[in-house]
């Protein structure tokens, strides 16, 4: 793993955005794996700025998001599809028909998961997968457990994850109980992984992920088995790293 710690936010977001932009410059048809949550917002904002300056185009790219809440329609303001539209897709030249987010409102969730994996299989692999990490070590919504699922699946969100995400909802009781998530196997198929980590509350999780044993109790630790992972840390998240 290549681990970088940044003293200032400017360098953190620019480094993340540059990695995406240089991929698109060398491969305009790149398949991007995208994450939601607070952490990647700065990188998405920077990519929008770079697009407006003519430094990057998404016109031929496609994207696959990691996850979506079960029970929220795509147009629900708190859905991850709405998040992506608001923070990235509405402001760049990507063809919306080539952006993919699991349908959390599908009647048959099992069929939706299988179809998502099939599309990934046909159009993948993902060239660059952007990830955040939960304070409990989750990636996507692959929660710590005795075993992990490889492909896209429905997951029960742990109480700590619903608590952490309550800030996006009126109250914790409004946070959906379940989500569809790409599995760890699907995530690890990406050619390159960019893990973005911010804040002291993530320090222990990322320390365990990169220095601890590979264990399903810290799903992010499985990234140690991937040959091409870049980890960007801010001061808080990287306080344990000299
Ligand atoms: C989001 C996702 C999650 C988040 C993680 C960190 O699509 O897959 O794994 O990356 O929960 O979230 P933030 O960045 O909000 O702390």
From TrEMBL:
The keyword Hydrolase applies. The active site is at 67 (proton acceptor), 136 (for ring-opening step), 138 (proton acceptor), 143 (for ring-opening step). CDD domains: GlcN6P_deaminase (cd01399). One of its GO terms (cellular component) is cytoplasm. Keywords: Carbohydrate metabolism, Hydrolase. The keyword Zinc does not apply. Its EC number is 3.5.99.6. GO terms for biological process: carbohydrate metabolic process; glucosamine catabolic process; N-acetylglucosamine catabolic process; N-acetylneuraminate catabolic process. Residues 17-226 form the Glucosamine/galactosamine-6-phosphate isomerase domain. Pfam families: Glucosamine_iso. InterPro entries: Glc/Gal-6P_isomerase, Glucosamine6P_isomerase, Glucosamine6P_isomerase_CS, NagB/RpiA_transferase-like. Pathway: Amino-sugar metabolism; N-acetylneuraminate degradation; D-fructose 6-phosphate from N-acetylneuraminate: step 5/5. It catalyses: alpha-D-glucosamine 6-phosphate + H2O = beta-D-fructose 6-phosphate + NH4(+). SUPFAM superfamilies: NagB/RpiA/CoA transferase-like (SSF100950). GO terms for molecular function: glucosamine-6-phosphate deaminase activity; identical protein binding. It is an enzyme of class 3 (hydrolase). Coiled coil: none annotated. Belongs to the glucosamine/galactosamine-6-phosphate isomerase family. NagB subfamily. Catalyzes the reversible isomerization-deamination of glucosamine 6-phosphate (GlcN6P) to form fructose 6-phosphate (Fru6P) and ammonium ion. This is Glucosamine-6-phosphate deaminase.
